[in-house]
């Protein structure tokens, strides 16, 4: 069946059905050999699907179906995902521009759906395929940074008198909570992520003091961003303070000092195991 898909030119209307079939197969209890075969067929089919995409807004249903399919593939330990397949997944996530949906009317719901689906995929990758990610930390954290940026600067170009609705804030909070959970998982691999953590921490702090209309102005959003910063501080070594103080402005330095003080007081483990 998969061979027939591979030989066929993928039509736009076929993508959700193809992804659904792949999901069903990926959820099966496969042998190692069949898992390896599925990985190869999945890679070939995805390459054809990528070519058929034109934009996120036009292919939203297809892209969401593909992400859900990738989640199922990553969860099944019997599917031996290769380095090439993981590279394709990360390239796909990197090229997605979720902010494109905000430029269109009545696309807010789709924006949050695709954002949360990407976070779910990243969580699935770090949970089930962390060995493949250890060699691709910068690419993986690039996806994380884009996810965080899209939340922190959600509709940042809006007029000053226009505030975000309660529904939007709840959706942002829900999306950011997934990123916070992802950051907790990343923190369990502190050694591998130690090199990139200072840059992500600097980005998060700068987002909070940005002159744009950042969503961190809202306390319920800011608290989750701060929790992400605490995990990043936990990963970083003692040199990160000098790095941030050297490359940041005064506002960022003050935020970093407050975060560090709160981390040492409330979050740093000081007891005995």
Describe this protein's structure.
It comes from Megaselia scalaris. InterPro entries: Urb2/Npa2_C (IPR018849). Pfam families: Urb2 (PF10441). This is Nucleolar 27S pre-rRNA processing Urb2/Npa2 C-terminal domain-containing protein. With 273 residues, the protein is an all-alpha fold. The chain is 70% helix and 0% strand. The chain contains 14 helices and no strands. It has helices spanning 2-7, 15-26, 32-52, 60-75, 83-95, 108-128, 130-133, 137-152, 166-187, 190-193, 197-208, 219-235, 240-247, 250-267. The mean pLDDT is 84.
Query: Which sequence of SSEs, written as H and E, runs from N to C?
Result: HHHHHHHHHHHHHH
Shape: globular
Helical stretch tally:
14
* End-to-end Cα distance: 54 Å
**Major sheet description:** none
Query: What's the total count of β strands?
Result: 0
Gyration radius over CA: 20 Å
- Helix share, percent: 55-70%
Helix-strand makeup class: mainly alpha
Question: In a nutshell, what does this entry contain?
Answer:
The chain is mainly α. The protein has 14 helices and no strands.
